[in-house]
Every structure is written in C-alpha cells, then in structure tokens.
C-alpha cells in the first residue's frame, strides 16, 4: 500500500508539473506585456522592473524562465490582481471557502437523496416506481444547469418570494469571518442575532446548492441502482436472506457498503464537470466563490487572477481525484488484490 501511495503522489506531482508548464506557456501568449501578465503590476517603476526581470529570469532562456516561474508560484507569489491591487493569493483565500461550502452542501444533498432513491429503484417490484425514478434522474441529467438555476430563481425567488436568489447572507447581519464558512461562522458567532443569521445563510444556500446537486444526484441514483441490482443477486446476499436476516439489515450492513464503491469511483470521474457546473451556478446566484471571481477576472482581463483561479481549481480537482482513487482502492477488496499482486 505504501508503494501505491507513493505512485499516487508521483502522479500528483507529475500532473501538477504539466499544469504549471501549460500555464507558463499560456501566460507568454497573453496580449499584454509579459511583466504585467506575470505580476499584475500595471506601471512598474524602474526598480520594480529590475526586480521582476530578476525574479522571473526574463533575460534568460525559456527553461530558466519556467524554473523561475515555478519557484515564484510554489512560493505563494501568484502576483497582484490588476483589478483590486491585492495579492491574488489573499483573494483566493477569501473566496475558496465559499466554493467549498457550496460544494459540500450540494454533495451532501446528492448523497442524502440519491442513495435512498437508488436503493428504492433497485428493490421496488413496481415497474411504475422504477420508471418514475429513472425518468426523474434522466430529466435532471438532461436539464442545462444555467436554465435550471434561472428557473428556480424565477419560481422560488421572484414569483413566490420564499428564498433569496443572490449572495450568502443578508447585508443587515454583520458576522465576523472566522473559518470562511458562513454556516459555521454564524453558529459560533457571539452576536445576539447569530441564530437569525444562520437561518438566513441557510436560506441563501438552498437554491444554489440544489441547482448544483442535481447532476451528482442523478449519477448517484443511477449508479446505486445498477450496483444494488447486481449485488442483491450475489451468493452472500442470498445466504443472508436464507438465514432470515431482515431486508433492511441486509441492505445497510452488506449491500450498501459494496454499492458505494462504484458510486465513489464515478463521483471522482465527474469532478471536472462538477467544478464547471459550480462556476455557472456561482455566477447565476452571485455566490462569492472562486468561480464567480474567476469569471469576473476574465471579463476584466485580470490575467494574474485568471492564472491563480485556474491553478487553484485545477490543483484541487487533481488532488481530490487522486484522493478519491485512493479511497476507492482502500474500500474495494478486488483493487487491493490487484495492487498487492502488482507489487
């Protein structure tokens, strides 16, 4: 297992190196002066120009420039945002928690509703129930996320007025950020209106989280159903039924843990799609996450913000994909068998 983890670490490092190389080549193609594209400083002084050329080795060959670029980025120097004149690293630190919070709530909703429906679709003997559930998932998978987000905003936000359609918290509440996760910060706040602020934050996250959860929800339902149908025909399940174990115990103790293995694998494969959907959702609902910040940087031609946003999102996707693969290998006995055989 240690050798396998070392190989996964090497894969992460190699993929990250390729990512940095692509960003370095793209940076040199930006239609602006290279010093501005690398640092975000619009009108550098003579001293700053000298420092930039020394830091990024601009008077050397491309290979030396790439090594210097790599050193700067790995050292945390992502440049200065041309729009806000703040370090890009600081801006990323302020917007990433909002994206993580939205993704976590959406993922929880997808699993909380997708797993039971997938189990129900696999165990139900009624064709109507099965076809209804599968029709719902197919519809949810086919609906464009931007249309769904706008429709939910129109129905529940504008026409019914039940839910807010933008932002994370009402501006009337002044909550001191501690963790960056607004649901947690409102709970731990010492403010007298912390409970009201938490409920308001909860209402704000419902529409964007539901919109973002639709795609993984449909995948969870379909994969869970297929896995459960296959597992319930296995010999050990038949033996458990013959011993007189209750169906709920068989499902929860024996079938569901094995059905989660393909679910986790498929969720890992769709991380890139999930991230692209999250960017669209953040823009629609004015959610102040890294996606909306990145799109704003693109519109304003903030080249350092674009580089920082793409780098952060890509590294997170690569890291999570590898971690999910490691988790899948740990949970799947067949994968472990192949792993040990290869060693």
What would you say this structure looks like, in words?
The protein has helices at 2-27, 34-39, 46-56, 62-74, 88-123, 127-142, 145-159, 182-188, 194-231, 235-242, 247-269, 271-284, 290-299, 303-331, 333-342. It has 343 residues and is an all-alpha fold. The chain has 2 domains: 2-74, no CATH class; 88-342, Orthogonal Bundle (MetI-like fold). The longest helix has 38 residues, at 194-231. It is globular, with a radius of gyration of 24 Å. The mean pLDDT is 85. The chain crosses the membrane at residues 102-123, 135-158, 201-223, 274-299, 305-327. Its main location: membrane.
Fold blueprint:
Layout: H1 2-27, H2 34-39, H3 46-56, H4 62-74, H5 88-123, H6 127-142, H7 145-159, H8 182-188, H9 194-231, H10 235-242, H11 247-269, H12 271-284, H13 290-299, H14 303-331, H15 333-342
Count of individual domains: 2
List the helices and strands in order. HHHHHHHHHHHHHHH
What is the CATH superfamily label of the largest domain?
Answer: MetI-like
Number of discrete helical segments: 15
CATH architecture of the largest domain: Orthogonal Bundle
Alpha-carbon distance between the termini?
Answer: 9 Å
The average pLDDT is 85
Name the quaternary structure: single chain
Helix content: over 70%
Strand content: under 5%
Radius of gyration: 24 Å
Total strand segments:
0
Biggest sheet overview: none
Note poorly predicted spans. Answer: none
- Judging from the principal axes of the Cα atoms, what is the shape? globular
CATH C-level class of the largest domain: Mainly Alpha
Structural class: mainly alpha
- Under CATH, the topology of the largest domain can be stated as MetI-like fold
Protein name: Binding-protein-dependent transport systems inner membrane component
Family: Belongs to the binding-protein-dependent transport system permease family. OppBC subfamily.
Transmembrane segments: 102-123, 135-158, 201-223, 274-299, 305-327
Organism: Shewanella woodyi (strain ATCC 51908 / MS32)
């Amino acid at each position: 297992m240690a050798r396998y983890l070392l190989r996964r670490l090497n894969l992460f490092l190699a993929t990250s190196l390729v990512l940095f190389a692509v960003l370095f080549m793209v940076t040199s193609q930006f239609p602006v002066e290279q010093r501005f594209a690398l640092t975000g400083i619009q009108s550098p002084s003579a001293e700053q120009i000298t420092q930039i050329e020394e830091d990024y080795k601009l008077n050397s060959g491309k290979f030396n420039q790439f090594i210097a670029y790599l050193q700067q980025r790995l050292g945390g120097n992502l440049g200065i945002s041309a729009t806000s004149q703040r370090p890009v690293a600081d801006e990323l630190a302020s917007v990433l928690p909002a994206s993580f919070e939205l993704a976590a709530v959406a993922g929880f909703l997808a699993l909380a509703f997708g797993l039971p429906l997938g189990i129900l679709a696999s165990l139900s003997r009624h064709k109507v129930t099965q076809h209804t559930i599968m029709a719902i998932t197919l519809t949810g998978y086919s609906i464009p996320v931007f249309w769904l987000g706008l429709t939910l905003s129109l129905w529940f936000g504008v026409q019914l007025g039940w839910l807010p359609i933008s932002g994370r918290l009402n501006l009337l509440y002044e909550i001191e950020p501690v963790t960056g996760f607004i649901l947690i910060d409102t709970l731990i706040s010492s403010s007298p209106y912390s409970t009201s602020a938490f409920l308001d934050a909860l209402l704000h996250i419902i529409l964007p989280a539901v919109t973002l959860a639709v795609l993984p929800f449909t995948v969870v339902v379909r994969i869970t159903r297929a896995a459960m149908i296959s597992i319930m025909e296995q010999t050990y399940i038949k033996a458990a039924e013959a011993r007189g174990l209750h169906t709920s115990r068989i499902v929860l103790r024996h079938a569901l843990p094995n059905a989660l293995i393909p679910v986790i694998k498929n969720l890992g494969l769709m991380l890139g799609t999930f991230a692209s959907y999250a960017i669209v959702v953040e823009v629609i609902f004015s959610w102040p996450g890294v996606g909306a910040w990145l799109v704003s940087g693109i519109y304003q031609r903030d080249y350092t913000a674009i580089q920082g946003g793409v780098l952060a999102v890509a590294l997170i996707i690569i890291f999570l994909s590898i971690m999910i693969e490691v988790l899948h290998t740990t949970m799947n006995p067949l994968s472990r068998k192949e792993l040990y055989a290869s060693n």
